[in-house]
Amino acid sequence: MTSGQPLLLSSSYAAESSKSQPTISSFGCLCPSSSLSSPKFEYCHSRTVSFADEEGEAISVGYSTCSQRNIENSFSSRRTSRFFSADSQFSQHFVLECSEEDEEHTQLAYRGSMNLQRFPSSHEISMASVGQEKPNKSQRVRHKSTQFEDPFTSEDNPRFIYINDPRRTNDKYEFTGNEIRTSKYTLITFLPKNLFIQFHRLAYLYFLAIAALNQLPPLAVFGRTVSLFPLLFVLFVTAIKDGYEDWRRHRSDRKENNREALVLQSGEFRMKKWKKICAGEVVKIHSDETIPCDMVLLGTSDPNGIAYIQTMNLDGESNLKTRYARQETVSMVTEGGSFSGLIRCEQPNRNIYEFMATMEFNGQRIPLGQSNIVLRGCQLKNTDWVIGVVVYAGQETKAMLNSTASPSKRSRLESYMNRETLWLSVFLFVMCAVVATGMGLWLEIHADRLDTLPYYRKKYFTHGRENGKDYKYYGLAMEIFFAFLSSVIIFQIMIPISLYITMELVRLGQSYFMIEDRRMYDGTSDSRFQCRSLNINEDLGQIKYIFSDKTGTLTENKMEFRRASIYGRDYGNSLHVTGHPSDETDTSGLLGEQRKKLKSEIDVDPDLVSLLHRDLVEEERLAAHDFFLTLAACNTVIPMSARSSSPTSTSEVHEVEAIHYQGESPDELALVNAAAAYGYTLLERTTGHIVIAVNGERMRLEVLGLHEFDSVRKRMSVVIRLPNNAVKVLVKGADTSMLSILDKKCDNTNGNSLPAKIRHATETHLYGYSSQGLRTLVIGSRDLTDAEFAEWQEKYEEASTSITDRSAKLRQTAALIECNLNLLGATGIEDKLQDGVPETIESLRQAGIKVWVLTGDKQETAISIGLSCRLLTQSMQQVIINGTSEDECRCLLLDAKARYCIKSSENVNGTVNLKSDLNREYLDTPKLSSNGSIHENGLRYSGAAADTVDTQLALIIDGTSLVYILEKDLESELFDLATSCAVVLCCRVAPLQKAGIVDLIKSRTNDMTLAIGDGANDVSMIQMADVGVGICGQEGRQAVMASDFAMGQFRFLKRLLLVHGHWNYQRVGYLVLYNFYRNAVFVLMLFWYILCTAFSATQALTDWSSVFYSVIYTSVPTIVVGILDKDLSHKTLLHYPKLYEAGHRQESYNQQLFWITMLDTLWQSLVLFYVPFFIYRNSTIDIWSLGSLWTLAVVVLVNVHLAMDIRRWVFITHVAIWGSIIITFMCMVIIDSIPVFPNYWTIYNLASSRTYWLSIILIAIIALLPRFLFKVIYQIFWPSDIQIAREAEILRKLPKQLGVKPNNDIS
């Protein structure tokens, strides 16, 4: 997640680990105890490093090679070590000073993926951007090194932007204009391009070939126009849809490009269309206007150069972001000087969270970063105006470079459908071969009588001018070949082209009802369910594994300050709520007449409040002062004021300026609000100073430098100058990064000293906070001497103005002061569970779905959350894998398998053979029985176990172990153990490790997987899974934009899967089988007729009847039933989650059902043909009249067949089923009324005959009687769970229909 809390390194270990574990090596600090909390690396090829982001999610950096280039520095050192920079495509070696203890440090290599959102790198990361591509399934995690696009491989490769000189900027015409284009087609390219895209479907090519063959005279079975109708109809409908969508894109592009903005022209700002804006031009934007292109800020209406922007259009985040204009350029705007200067910036890239550039202005070289640029699509808020210079325009803006679509996914059932389509192709080939062979034999046997026999006469016998002329007889061999091709044309609908468009329409209808489901609407975020992919609705009914993130997915990602450890004392046990108006934080007094109030609902500890009101004399009081000063100052939160009226006790109304905070991190907001609740209120923040009200007294602190949080250091620090002119550094960070850089006097080896006791108590409190599920931070500070400050300031200015490796140099500079810290304390922040999470997880587990949680949080925090959300239970046997080497991980896995009697999933040849369609019992959760054997549909394990009662297993594994397991050949061992456990909890995992875990299951089983998350670091997991679900949470919309479905709360997943997933799977499964049956029964009827007409290509049905059969006559009922039919009510499905397992067993669609359907189809086709054949055998009925009977009979038969299987009748279902039969009869009347057709007037003669109607009724009864008897016997003696639940539903409804109150009902 990306919630803003610096936590443990994903590949690291717990802070309380033993000394035998590898120590984190230091990074270039002058202090002996200082450390960057990052691993020390060997010279390597294709290595990847994994870290944790600010919220605890693991980050990794991949290196393809390790360069030998050194960066010179002036650090004096006793001994040097090499550190690979995480900011370059090539790994540079930094020569840094380290302490002597580093000799004992163990070198580790970590793998994973980099989280783009927080990592301050200048390089694009290919997988972690908004529009990232799906990782290749065939790749294992160890091959997934993140690739960097280094825009500054050298100082000579930047982009030069001359301020207010667009002509000079683009003198080589290498920059694009600001016009954008999201449409696919133009008027000229629409037809060829759209047809090219549509014919990517092989079925369309098949029917195109069929239509082309029918144009040849020897093969003209249908009319040449009629044969093209089905294909043209499908192509036309699809083209209309695509054309309409592209027309909307054109309209949107035209509207966007023709918007206007103020551009500096001839010394004054004039309106100019967006599409004409060029790089280098100076643009002015007013409040609530949208930014037209990527611009570097030169000045704002705020004297301090602050601007607030909303990035919702870019990343979906609704909270305001702060951007700054450099103080050097603010004067350019405010003093009315000329706009001039040169900006050297990186080449366009997709990284929306980083920007590196320098500006040359008035002889100064000014560093520019991500906080100095505003991107296209953002809106200006709470700022009157800003002025900026365009650096990227049009298609080169970061927003447009990130506008790639998510990878498309194909339904698992559709892949199975293609397998059955192949079988139908075989049937088609066999039937055509039979017809061609029979024709050849007939011609051979009757070669001497072809002039007198029907079907194959060599001469015409008519009264017209053709009388006596010869047919075009091509010889026996060619006639056989032509007969084969003609049969293909006649039997073409055996491959149902209508099925493709039917499935699209059904999925569209299903998506509509899912979107409109009010029970999946989240009122808190005003977000309803979204269907972003229409291809995999039915997959929702077959999910076996759910891979879930924790923060923001299971939890609310709304942080609340709960506990504090200060000077070794724990606060927060006895809390007092300060949520009433009388308890609001009042910062009046010395602040002037204008009152400032901060609405606070933070629970405060009275003991801590009393401590903070003592004099600043005692050590404990000073530590508490620095503690809350760090909470209020060491952040990027911006205080914002809004004036309101407040009545007083004397009935007077005073103007009150209410303060609320804007920040990108929920953790930082929680800490700042907590500081305000305890009397340390942040009032003002600029680039140069901050103002804090300490118990009502105003304190102005000069900000000398800020080292923002990054994934390598895992901490944040700010250098401030106090009013007494003292310089102090305030630091907060993850415990693993902070505890290693404390002063030596805090070392646990000095157990008798007060600092050592404070550290020991703080570590104990940290462990307790984590066990309660709280997110933890460690707070420290240090006074800087003049020499230390001067050295740091010099390095800081040098690093800030560097274009290449700026982030690495800033980290190197931060290490100078982030050392020898005094431990102030620690914080515990609560991230509450979302509503309904425990109940949802319990229902999903009852439904046979395994829920795995993949999080970047600490192990103790994850376990605590797992217990609170009922993922873990106290009765479960926890199997914990915390390895720090390949050998240790192997031993832990093998020991666990041996202890719990888990056999290997590999066969004799050593290859995994676990893929099967129906027999997946090997994945069921084993249980340890009293005699030590594992049962409940598991593998036959043997051996003894220590447990004496039935116990489920829960696997808990950390990211460090996954590095070695997924990197080495230990995946099969992990798979065996993980699939034998009821619960898997992965802690400290990197984004690509999340994807690797998903791939581990996908590549070794046929089970459907679902990944759900809410942050950018969940994107790789979401795109790897068969179904990806995004949560519209607090962290933007990166996960939503990469997902297949999106919702507001995790609890909606229960209804999505158990209700809509079940319905969709049942509907689409039946839809596919029914379409196969519907077309096959029609084709087989034609086949029996051809066998009775000397294997000729003669037809009894008109061309239009054959074409309309699947397009008009029988298509509407299929679509309506596929959208509206329900086998069970939503209450029943939610009350009995185990009904969902019908999808796991593939009860609605499998090969057995396919073959049963084909046997039933064979029987019905025989009845359909031979009943009229024997009834009219001795009559004088003509072939066209018999064809009309067959046409209506087959439509009645397939619709009655469909009606037998409908479980939910509504008005529109009746209209579709019976209306389809009526429309068929009306069409036949119209066709038979046209004199030019050979079947002219036949229906009028037949409709008056009772035999005609009785024949249709007899066909339906005889054809469907075996099916009816089979269903009755099967449901009586072998009822399915769904049938039993349906009968129970009917029995509950019956008393209501009779007016009797039922004994019980499902709520």
UniProtKB/TrEMBL annotation:
It is a multi-pass membrane protein. Mg(2+) binds at D549, T551, D1014, D1018. The active site is at D549 (4-aspartylphosphate intermediate). It comes from Ananas comosus (Pineapple). The chain crosses the membrane at residues 226-244, 422-443, 480-501, 1080-1101, 1107-1124, 1153-1175, 1181-1202, 1209-1231, 1251-1270. Residues 127-149 are annotated as: Disordered. This is Phospholipid-transporting ATPase. It is found in: Membrane. Residues 161-226 form the P-type ATPase N-terminal domain. ATP binds at D549, K550, T551, E668, F709, K732, R775, T855, G856, D857, R988, K994, N1017, D1018. One of its GO terms (cellular component) is plasma membrane. The keyword Chaperone does not apply. Keywords: ATP-binding, Magnesium, Membrane, Metal-binding, Nucleotide-binding, Translocase, Transmembrane, Transmembrane helix. GO terms for biological process: phospholipid translocation. It catalyses: ATP + H2O + phospholipidSide 1 = ADP + phosphate + phospholipidSide 2. Its main location: membrane. One of its GO terms (molecular function) is ATPase-coupled intramembrane lipid transporter activity. Its cofactor is Mg(2+). Its EC number is 7.6.2.1. Belongs to the cation transport ATPase (P-type) (TC 3.A.3) family. Type IV subfamily. InterPro entries: ATPase_P-typ_cyto_dom_N, ATPase_P-typ_P_site, ATPase_P-typ_TM_dom_sf, ATPase_P-typ_transduc_dom_A_sf, HAD-like_sf, HAD_sf, P-type_ATPase_IV, P-type_ATPase_N.
